[in-house]
Write a structure and sequence with these properties.
The chain is an alpha+beta fold and 159 residues long. The chain has a single domain, classed as Aminopeptidase. A six-stranded mixed β-sheet has the order 1-2-3-4-5-6. A hairpin with a 2-residue loop joins strand 3 and strand 4.
């Protein structure tokens, strides 16, 4: 796991420069919140293989990408994972679409990704939320816990 605090990679201030991107390299892996690095084809194809987003239309995916912050992880030049953040950069962020390629799982990349997400300006917020069916133990390591006060509204007609 990368120790971001000891490296002083950035310091959050009252005014956050959303154009300032974080890029970290470790053991041949490269992780960034630079949206221009995202392999859009990989993102779309990978979502089609998930339980949570396999029915999203291409139009919805385009809207999602236009209005979210993407964190991408690469091994050499190949994208092997991503996470999407919906954020106001201050009080709230929603972590979603956390994905690591099946052949790359079990190598600590989910922890590496979440460590990065929790430190980058888009994810370092007062309140951060996510939902999961299969990775609660991972997220607990980053301070996430179940909360019975949460209320959710789902729009059935939106893909």
């Amino acid at each position: 796991m990368v120790d971001f605090k000891s490296k002083n990679l950035f310091m959050l201030s009252e005014t956050i420069n959303r154009d300032q991107k974080m890029n970290i390299e470790k053991n041949g892996y490269y992780i960034t919140d630079d949206q221009s690095k995202l392999n859009r084809e990989h993102y779309t194809k990978s979502l089609k293989n998930t339980y949570w987003a396999n029915t999203r239309s291409d139009e919805t995916i385009e809207k999602v990408l236009a209005n979210s912050v993407m964190v991408s992880i690469f091994y050499q030049e190949k994208q092997v994972g991503f996470t999407r953040l919906v954020t106001d950069y201050s009080t709230f962020s929603y972590v979603c679409d956390v994905y690591i390629e099946p052949e790359c799982r079990g190598k600590g990349l989910g922890r590496y990704m979440m460590d990065f997400v929790s430190k980058c300006p888009a994810g370092n917020t007062k309140l951060s939320m996510l939902t999961t069916n299969n990775a609660a133990e991972l997220y607990r390591k980053f301070g996430y816990e179940k909360n019975d006060d949460l209320m959710i509204k789902r729009e059935i007609n939106i893909a």
